Structures are given as C-alpha cells and as structure tokens.
Amino acid sequence: MICRITLVYIVKLKHASNCNNIGSLFGGNEMLKWKPKYNQEDFDFLWENCIFVFDTNMLLNFHRYSNSTNKDFFNVLTRVKDRLWIPHQVLLEYMYNQESVQIGLKNSYSKIDSAFKKIFNPALEEAKKELKQYKNHPFIETSEIVFKLEGVLSDFYQILQNTEEIHEIEVEQRGKLENSILDLFINVGKAFTEEELKRVIQSGQERYKILRPPGYEDRHKKDEEWKQYDNLIVPDKYGDLVAWKQIILHAKVIKQPVVFITDDQSKIGGGFLRVGR
pTM for this one? Predict the structure, then answer.
C-alpha cells in the first residue's frame, strides 16, 4: 500500500533570529518560533530533539495497511519508541473508532461487488441486446464479443474474491494489532479535567464562529456525535481542538520540538504549521 503522510512541524528552533514570533498560539510565550524556510541546521536540531505525535488517523491506518507495511512501520517506530507520544484525545478516538474501521474494511468487498453488479450487469444485458441485431453480420462475431465481456466481469469478481480471502488470512496472521499499537504508544497525555474540557469547548464555540482553526471544519457535526471518558463528554466537533490544546500543554511542559504526523489534509493550516510532507 502507498501511504501519504503529512508532517506538521511545531518547531522550537535552536536559533530563532530572523524569525517571526507567533508565540501567541501558545498563550503569548516565546516558545514557538516560525519562519517560512528552514535550513539544514534547523532540521538537524528538530530531528535530534523532537518528540513524534501521531494523529488518530495514523493509528487507525495501521488497520488499513498490509502486514508488510505495518512491519516496516513498527520496525522504524520501535527505534524511537521513547520519543512517541499521543494526546489523550487521540487514544480516546482510536479506541472508539478502530473496530468500525475493521468492519468497514471487511464490508468493502461486498459493497464493491454490489456496486459493480448494479452498474455492469444491466450494461452487459443491454450490450447483448444491441449485439443481437448484428448476429448475421459477416465479420462481427457477436458471440465472441459477449464471451469476452462476460470473461472480463468474471475475472474481476474472481480477483475481488481472492483479495477478500487474502485479507482474511492477513487479519488472522496479524493477531492482536490493537495490542501492538498500544504497546508502541505507551506515552499518553493526561485527560482534561471537567473544568479544562469546559474551557476548551467554550473557546471552541467562539473560535468556530470566526472560522479559527484548528477544528472548525468539524463545526457542522451533530451534537449527538461524541466520545466519553469517565463521566465527561467530548463532542466530536471539538475533538481536533481538544487534541491540539493537549499537544500545546505538553509542549510547554517538556520544552521540546514536536513533529505532528497526520494524513488528514484538513488539519494543515492555522494552528498546525505545514512545512513539509
């Protein structure tokens, strides 16, 4: 599988001269510095000192990748296991969504099968009907054309069936992937208290009115869409904002650069600084 990963760097530069201060994103402190172009020294400092923060979609992608792709990922990430960290909100979303991702993948085959039969079976019958008028043509072999058309569809359905069987085998072989993921990402941030969560949601209500990222793209999600931990409810529309605030608080504490890893293009911009892929 070819996977696209977008890296969003929240960078504390070693040398902050000639940089525009946007520390206001961190509540007005001087921690975050930004400039439109980074030199090699900046990147060397980043990679030597950063922690890697994974977005929920990246954790869920482990269920979408093949076993061989996961093996490559895990081999690399195991080497930097002590530098991996996820916000509590990411873990919460992963635990809620990982089963539905697996079910969705399993159901993909039947959905594709139904969709193709709905589209191509009537088309095949229509083609047969049209070709009948040429059955006495001296050069057009209508029966051969029909045979080849049916063969193409039959080959497709066989490929789909074979792929589904391979999927089942790989899923069985990978065992408890969820446990492997949780073992890898053992560094998890603290959950917000009721007061902290309340403040973030209130802030989000005002931010979304002026389309201030991150998270405002989810403002149209329904109120009944939510995640729960302990007795606290996190509306899905504020999930990205909660995760972002948790990353900020953690960055303040550890005073290290952060590399945020996601493949969700909607999270690029505003509070998330995009300088590479």
Answer: 0.78
